[in-house]
Amino acid sequence: MESRFCVLNDTEDLQTQISNTDIDLHFERSKTLFEEIRASINNSDKEDRSFWRPVLPWGGVFTIKAGRKAISCTPLYVKISLKNTCTIDGFLMILYVILRDNHGFPRELAVFLGKHFVEHFLYLMDSCDYTTVKILWIWGRMSKRQYRSEIHQAALEIDLFGNEHENFTENLENLMSTMQESLCTNWSCPSRFQEFIKTTIKIRCDGLREFSQRVFCHGAPPFVILNMQQWKSEELSYVPYHLALCQHRYLLEGATLFNREEHHYSAAFQIDGCWMHYDGLRSDNLILLHKPPELLLLSSLVYIRASDK
Fold first, then answer.
1. What SS3 state is found at 136?
2. Angle made by CA atoms 23, 26, 29, in degrees to the nearest 5
3. 110 SS3 class
4. How far apart (Å, rounded) are the C-alpha atoms in residues 224 and 222?
5. d(Cα 17, Cα 12) in Å, to the nearest integer?
6. pTM
7. Which of 291, 286, 298, 293 has the alpha carbon at shortest distance from 48?
8. Reduced to 3 DSSP states, what percent helix, strand and coil does the chain have, rounded to the nearest 5?
9. How far apart are the C-alpha atoms of 252 and 55, rounded to whole Å?
């Protein structure tokens, strides 16, 4: 007897679910989420430091209507429960702020992530459809080896417990890929000339290697992410507010933070010079910062390319 439960195809079902929202694209919101957050900053006082509603909360439940392959006349719905999403939440929040605050960046990022992805990411964030935003990233950008999934009856559970750089930064395609050339002074070196993409390889030989300046493979990206987990604590006493990379100036725009006791990530970013702390696990998860968060470790720094003006 054929089972009345259908087999779901991740990409196909997600595409169907998001396509159903295209009808609503004709109706423009009076304000984007970014504009609402910016307005709350300008109208806030010392006693009211938090945004009026939760933004991109931890976890989520996503429902898929599976009717095409289901035999039952009643449409079959399955749930997808998301766990430990903080490994992507902070970066998704920062990515949204960067794209909304810099009008030319969505077009540049579309070259790497696809125009369809960028447009729907912004639309879903502005629609406060946060669980679909996470599913869009998980099925659109991540490989299945990067997360754990289990099936419980008609529900699928996806667990993103792990490292945020593996779950987010590594899935930005070639956005931040760099190239560097090196030349060994020893003429008998079997690998005298080498060209390195992304990483620097240590070569052991009798001569010394001379390295050229590292350059971006596809031009200066709109933003760069520095993995600060590779730095020692004593090296973090000074955080530069700007960087000079490949004849371009980059400005500090955000950071992700790590709570070692809770094994939990959060994020901080600035809008109009005001810093905000985002923590999807809290009820008031977006608050205005008057001082740096305490007892949190620096996980990454996010810099945006300064305007040519």
1. helix
2. 115
3. helix
4. 7
5. 9
6. 0.82
7. 286
8. 30, 30, 40
9. 22
Question: How far lies 263's CA from each of 137, 257, 281, in Å?
Answer: 21, 10, 12
> How many residues are listed for the chain in this entry?
309
Instruction: Say whether 113 sits in a helix, a strand or coil.
Output: helix
- pLDDT means per 10 residues, the chain with 309 residues, are 39 53 52 92 70 91 69 64 97 98 95 94 96 94 90 86 92 81 76 57 48 76 87 67 88 93 94 93 90 82 84
33-43 vs 86-101: helix crossing angle, rounded to 10: 80
The tokens for 28 are 């423009």
Rounded Cα–Cα distance for residues 121 and 225 (Å): 19
Locus of tokens 């939760």: 54
Tokens matching residue 186? 């020893």
Q: Which amino acid is at 119?
A: E
With tokens 């930005």, the residue in question is 172
Q: How far apart are CA 42 and CA 24, in angstroms?
A: 30
What contacts 175, CB < 8 A, 6 or more positions away? Answer: 109, 112, 218, 221
d(C-alpha 259, C-alpha 294), whole Å: 10
**Radius of gyration in angstroms for the set of CA atoms belonging to the chain, rounded to a whole number:** 22
